[in-house]
Fold each of these.
Amino acid sequence: MSDAIISIQGVTKRFGEVTAVERVDLDIRAGEFFALLGPSGCGKTTLLRMLAGFEQPSEGRILIGGQDMTGVQPNHRPVNMVFQSYAVFPHMTVFDNVAYGLKVAHTPRGEIAPRVKEALAMVQLSGYEARKPDQLSGGQRQRVALARALVKRPKVLLLDEPLSALDAKLREAMQIELVRLQQTVGITFVIVTHDQDEALSMADRIAVMESGHVRQVASPQTLYEFPSGRFVADFIGKMNLFEGKVVAREAAGLSVEVEGLGRLELPADERAPAPGRAVGIAVRPEKVELTRSAPPEGSVARRGTVTQVAYYGDVSYVFLDLEDGPALNANVINDERAAEPHFVKGETLWAAWNPRDFLVLGE
Amino acid sequence: MAGRLTSLLGFGRDEPIGPLDYGRRWWMRLIVGLTFVFLYAPIVVLIAYSFNDSRRNIVWVRFTTDWYVKAIHDQSLLVAFGNSLTIAIINTLLSTVLGTLTALLLWRFRFPLRPVYEGAIALPIVIPEICMGVAMMAFFAWIGWPNDLPWPISLSNIVIAHVAFSFPFVAVIIRARLAGFNRELEDAAKDLGATEWRTLLDIIVPYLKPALVAGALISFTLSLDDFVITFFTAGPDTITLPVKIFSMVRFSVTPEVNAASTVLVVITVVTTVLALRLQNAGQKAGSSG
Ligand SMILES: Nc1ncnc2c1ncn2[C@@H]1O[C@H](COP(=O)(O)OP(=O)(O)O)[C@@H](O)[C@H]1O
Ligand SMILES: [Mg+2]
């Protein structure tokens, strides 16, 4: 709590009938790269706009740097935003765009030029001062928007889907650059994205949102390996999900009956539902091991037929139909040069798991 | 037959005419040509005879600029022209400001009956001018507007009438431009520390500039060549150029009238072309950002 630069406390936002954000509690720490991740329409932008001051919470309050922001207008908040459309002022040069926030704040004239220069250098746009926005590419316009916000030296930089308008190559380069930039300036970044790869690769911590609620706040690895529920498990990464029923829940282990997989003996899990209750059993594709020969004693293994192989270069996705019905997706890393695919459509394989890699998900 | 006609007219080309190549079909070209003739022939004749060295607009004698010299020395014509320009300039200032504020209000705020206001704004554009004129006359008679005010106050009732019918044009032009405004630009300015007022001056007004110029030029030309509404609102002693031309024509169409009209045509055409060009330029520049 003490090192939280942003503290969102019981915030709800309604637009007439629509509840865009519902009872959100969230602390963002000083200096961290924080991501708000969720599908389109889940309320990410609304939450970000409440931080910037463009929307006022219907309920709850927001503290920034320990100060209650209720009723504080956007131009008086210690945060700056990079907009989804970049919102670079079309009638101003790059220099004037970046200098604008300093001018309206009555920064001494002698201080403006060096600070603009420094900000432009930070985003690698030195030499572009005299250009007009229509002479810049999309990526360059975004850098102007970044420089324009950073030059104000905000406590927090807010970014709304900053990479969604860029093409794939540029997006990847920009992901790395944004992280580098954040580490250089040491400012807290809060980024909104619907792209899980973006969030996973860039953020220190991620809040996963679904229809106005925050479902889980955790590090990328925790989100991926220990999702708190079905939504997060399904939304982040790829997942094989099976339906089952708890048979026994004891200190020694958890016993579940899974449709198509039969009885599974899993490690103890005190958060699992009570015996007799329905449960979801999930496993990531890369945790499935495919072999032609029967797997060793002790591992959980089932036989299945390959229905499709999707080749992605570094990995191949193998789709199987298990003997007892359910479909299964497994990843094979192509870590050796080979002219022929590892597995082919139609062949029968063993799919094996370590019981520890199964996720137990409540309803 | 048709083929021979087209090649005679120089339209014939070797490639076959595509289904959408209407511009290459002889009958299309004929219609377009005739339209231009009917639209512009009278104006061309008017301008031509203003340079004709003859009292009567019947036969061409020789080129002269005498009628322009004569028009410049006609005191009452000059007074009328001065009145017209004064009215047009004041009208332009007032209706540009009023029209812009109206458009901003309709764009920016939500209030009860807003669609009704949006529709009502367009009314002066569609109401027949003669009705506007009669209504204005009745209005000024009803409030007992004095007729014996000193110049230029004496022009104020005409200015009021002109503002009433030209500011909606400005409002419509500005409103259309605002529809394409990226609201995030406004948010960005506030986010960087600007107040509402600075955001308006620094971001919205520059964005509106082409529409502001176009609106101003259009209200200028509307006012400058307005006859009907001015005729009904003008007091007995205030005369504008179109009203003066009308009164001169009642006696006879002299080349002097042609000269005065040509001046009016040139001013109107130049301003309109400028307005259109600025609006097009604005549409191109406004799409970025
Ligand atoms: N100004 C607004 N007026 C009405 N509804 C809105 C407004 N802004 C957002 N919403 C609604 O709130 C929900 C969340 O929107 P948003 O925060 O933009 O989602 P996201 O950024 O996650 O895609 C959506 O259902 C959207 O339609
Ligand atoms: Mg959004």
Amino acid sequence: MRKRWQRRHIVEGIMKGLMLASFAVVAGSLGLILWIVVSRGLPALTWDMVSQTPKGGFYLGKEGGILNAIIGSLYLAGGGTLLALVFSLPIALYLETYLGDWRWGQYVRLALDVLWGIPSIVYGAFGFTLMLAVGMRASLLGGIFVLTLLELPIMTRAMDEVIRRMPAELEQAALALGSNRLEVATRVVTRQMLPGIVTAILLAFGRGIGDAASVLFTAGFTDRIPKSLLDPAASLPLAVFFQLGMPYPEVQQRAYASALVLTIIVLAISLGSRWISGRLSKYVLK
Amino acid sequence: MEAHIQVRNLNAFYGKTQSLKDINIEIPRRQITVIMGPSGCGKTTLLKTFNRFLELVDDTKITGEVLVDGRNIYDRDVDVTEVRKCIGLLAQRPYPLPMSIYENVAYGMHIHRMKNSRDEYRKAVRHYLEVTGLYEEVKHRLMTPATSLSIGQQQRLCLARGLAVEPEIILGDEPTSALDPISSQHIERLLLDLKQDYTIVVVTHTLRQAKRLADYVIYMYMGEVLESGPAREVFNNPRHERTRAYLEGQI
Ligand SMILES: Nc1ncnc2c1ncn2[C@@H]1O[C@H](COP(=O)(O)OP(=O)(O)O)[C@@H](O)[C@H]1O
Ligand SMILES: [Mg+2]
């Protein structure tokens, strides 16, 4: 009796230790990444860095900033997220209303999950091939297009979950009061699903803005802020990549500053999304 | 007895299976009618034909008539939202709308534009919360989410929300089956009060509750109405063998 009791406690202790260790690894790496980015990037993060485009010799350590990449990234991820939203909402609704839990619905979900897992360089190569075929140059539009493809699976699956969690009884409750379909959709269903939708959008935006490989060939890189959809566009991940590749310490430091800017944007988005969905979901039926 | 709802030759189908078979009943005005019967006999289905909820289920078909105040609610020119405004529903489990307590009660009045000013809405919300005995419990937190209430309170909120659109008929599909005994008792008392002003139709699976509530009883079996009549007659003197068996607890 006593021996068994001891064994169970030893096993529990070991498991607890393992869990604690894995947690420490994760938290530790996150802390280390943040520490490196902040400690190396902060000294170089001047007002000029975020308010100016690169001037001549910027990549050799002369004046200028990464405004081109900040604006480019926001355009790219913003455009991609918007387009992904336009496509993913109907797909998710179609999945739910017409395919449901039927076999085809499962196939479509599986396909989306596979697409989710495909490395972004593959999306980049695919987009680049398409663009070559139609004779398009690297441009903001091309980048947005590829980011749309990249974000579509995440957003669609997230929306799909949101819609699936919508209880049918809630719609019935509203209908029983004499609501018409439009009132049910705009006043009840939207309020129930909004927190989930906001989360889905920001999740997809986060993936889009952090991705380098997919925009490498499709959006290109430029020192100017794009003026039209057909101009090439810079992006933060690529700005980090290019600056880090330079043999000058001050330029490498600026790479860390650029990474810091990107980190701050992503952090702001995830904190913002938590805050917004927390506020909105106060009323939501669990 | 004056009939508020008259059901004539009503048949209902889910796909090919028939769930209601040639139903002919009358439901008296401003009384409580209780629908009883073993589970799966079609009680919920019958209730759903009264507020045209059956058409929300795919592949259903209805033949026959349901007359409310002499008018067939399945007529082509009847507005289904008007039917449902006139006939409130208390579901098996409360589903508050994803809004505050206040907005839950105001919702129906808003969509039907029933009041003219903020103040009128406020007064009406307060009135219906008082009717359902909730006001004192929630008056300091009208703007908090309705989901923060207990299940019993939520069910009373759902009742208040339904009453706020000024229906004449209230349907209840086992409205106390998810509630604790105290909350159930509360709902039962409310229904007994409300029958002064409303025609009430309640499905119940407990015989005791039926005896406490019923003025009029409908007993169903396998999609048919075997027996209907004033509560005392049916309880004391059932005409049908199966009703007797059910009342004696053999089913
Ligand atoms: N959505 C549905 N699709 C197919 N058959 C259904 C559906 N809902 C109910 N039924 C069938 O109709 C019959 C009556 O069901 P119901 O009205 O829910 O019974 P009760 O409420 O008396 O338990 C049952 O045999 C049930 O299987
Ligand atoms: Mg039922």
